[in-house]
Specification:
Length: 247
């Protein structure tokens, strides 16, 4: 039997991750407060009024040090705390203290990359990497299979999933594409596989690139995919331990 191992959200796209004890999802929406903000760089062609591709944003694929950020968002006050091994903690309101955030994040950006310029708030949905509102799921068995080929343990934070699952065979989640699943109270359709980028080569505890995740996927399985994107078709509450049923 497959079930939820853990739940995660990422309030600012590519700038931190946070474990959740439970979450309530709505049809046609991303996870609440997941990628609710995104950091547009100085060459971006978006103002945040609608979804935009990830190339417009500062992200771990170009700035591996960002991968070591962890976060804690207070839903009631709107205060977000960011932590990084090379920076003092920052607690701020993302809607009102953009300058403080940009100053805090500046040393984490490589000098030869477009620099972070604006903190944008998503208008109708989180700034996920897909043009549709998505929630990502990966099985620990798939991660373990990849880690074995890479030759070292791989921290789940490399892959920035919303839902980590136990009980599947390695890469079994790929077989669910095009099908519906029931997870706790929530019904999803499994939309597509997730193709990975250079962000996954960085260690989320150090922010240093130390594993050829993409090469291992390509050489062993002939692709660079890990995990699947889900779309919510019936809302409800999720929590770790909820069973995952294939419909």
């Amino acid at each position: 039997m497959a079930d939820i191992a853990s739940l995660w959200r990422h309030p600012i796209k590519s700038h931190g991750r946070e474990a959740l004890e439970r979450v309530t999802l709505s049809p046609g929406q991303t996870m609440p407060w997941d990628r609710h903000w995104a950091v547009a760089h100085e060459a971006a062609k978006t103002d945040g009024t609608e979804w935009a591709p990830c190339a417009n944003f500062s992200r771990g694929a170009k700035a591996p040090s960002l991968m070591a950020i962890t976060s804690k968002f207070d839903d009631a006050t709107g205060q977000l705390t960011l932590s990084h091994p090379d920076r003092d903690d920052l607690t701020f309101d993302p809607d009102r203290e953009e300058a403080a955030f940009l100053e805090w994040a500046r040393p984490l950006m490589p000098k030869d990359r477009a620099q972070s310029a604006r903190l944008l708030r998503a208008q109708e949905r989180g700034m996920t990497d897909t043009p549709f509102p998505s929630i990502s799921l990966i099985s620990h068995a798939s991660l373990d299979a990849l880690a074995e080929k890479v030759g070292q343990p791989l921290h789940p934070g490399r892959f920035r999933a919303n839902i980590w699952a136990n009980g599947f065979a390695p890469f079994e989640e790929f077989d669910l594409v095009g099908r519906d699943i029931q997870v706790g109270e929530v019904r999803f359709t499994v939309a597509e596989r997730i193709t990975r980028c250079l962000a996954t080569t960085a260690n989320p505890e150090t922010g240093e690139r130390d594993a050829d995740t993409l090469g291992a996927l390509q050489s062993n399985w002939g692709h660079r995919d890990l995990g699947v994107y889900l779309a919510v078709i019936k809302g409800g509450t999720l929590q770790p331990g909820d069973e995952i049923q294939v419909l």
